[in-house]
Amino acid sequence: MATALTITLALSGLSAALPQTASAENLDDQLNNVKEKQSSNEKELQKKESELADVKAEQEDVQAEIEKLNKEVAETDEKISAKEQEIKDTNAEIDQLKEEIKALEERIAERDKLLKDRVRSMQQNGGGTVDYMEVLLGATDFSDLVERVLALNTIADQDKKILEEHKADKEAVEEKKAQVEDKLASLEENKAELENLKQELDAKKAQKDKLMKSLEEEEGELHNHMMDLNETAEILSAQESAVKQEIKRAEEAARKAEEERKAAAAKAAKEKAEAEAAAAAKAKKEAASSSSNSSSSSSSNSAPAPAPEPAPTPAPAPSSSASFIKPAAGPITSGLGQRWGTFHAGIDIAQGGNNPVSAAADGTVLRSYHSDSYGNVVFITHSINGQMYTTVYAHMKNRAVSTGQTVSQGTYLGTMGNSGHSTGQHLHFEIHKGSWNSSKSNAVNPMNYIR
Question: Which CATH fold would you assign to the domain 323-448?
């Protein structure tokens, strides 16, 4: 019995050790593959460096044109504001002229009434004319004569003044009406110029939008995450270190799992042996107590009771990294594949508010940093069942983990944000089967892996 137990334990230990060895060899192969890709990537980067330089020069030209348009748009905005002020001032002047015309017309109407009253009085008193000789000859003395002459002169001066003022007011009304007509014509002209300026502004904005779209397409569109050569080299360099660290973590996890499996197997074997010993003792006791019975009965009763079924060896608890979890809450707004003429290497998850981002599986933080394109981004290396994976979490508002840190599935990495080349709050999430590379040839559809 002891020999059988030993053989059983040895075989179970061997069967558990084989996958671990194979897994370690697989991880070593993948590490070598990372080094080969790093070397290959260096050659590819050197080859494309001149192409990227040309694209950058074109982008600078486009950016300069955009800045020029921005300046022209600002100047046009100022012209529009000035023209709108001119229109406002002209309207105010027209209103003032209308008030002045109204006052003049009221004065003219009052003077017309006064003149009509005088004419009516003169007609009633002498046929409408003044007999100056009769007035003068009617004087009683020289003093009365002087007073009469002065009175006649005063009446004549007043009549003359009234007539002159009346004439001047009428001329002023006509002049101001002409001014109103000129102002109205100027107003219509200013409004036409304003409309032209607005059309010019719209055209410049449309041209700017077209250039911006061209710039985005030339960069491979914002979500394509074109990276600086140095940034890519740093990621690849950090990746080699992260893979080594992840191999150690995976081996340590496998070692602990093996220890737990052996402990569980030893416990099950001990329980089985104790159960068999108890069954044998019970059978022996029952055989002794039933010796007075018939031989057939004794024979049947003295047979040891069948040993209970041994407790099954518990299977190791599944690793939390057995699959990937969705790293953030929210709907998938964009999937993996061609988009706007470029390859979108992951999925976009969008949701407002303070939305936490979590590690999709156990692993080692390859790199945590701020990128011009990715914004706040975290790369994580994972070893799952002997297969290496790399996940990317981009555009976060902040980062809560650091390079080289070991994380568990569900570890808080940061908060969903809008950093880097991003057009709105979302998480850009990538899964690469194997190591990450700048061409993203290892990118797989996360929807096939997350649960």
Answer: Glucose Permease (Domain IIA) (2.70.70)
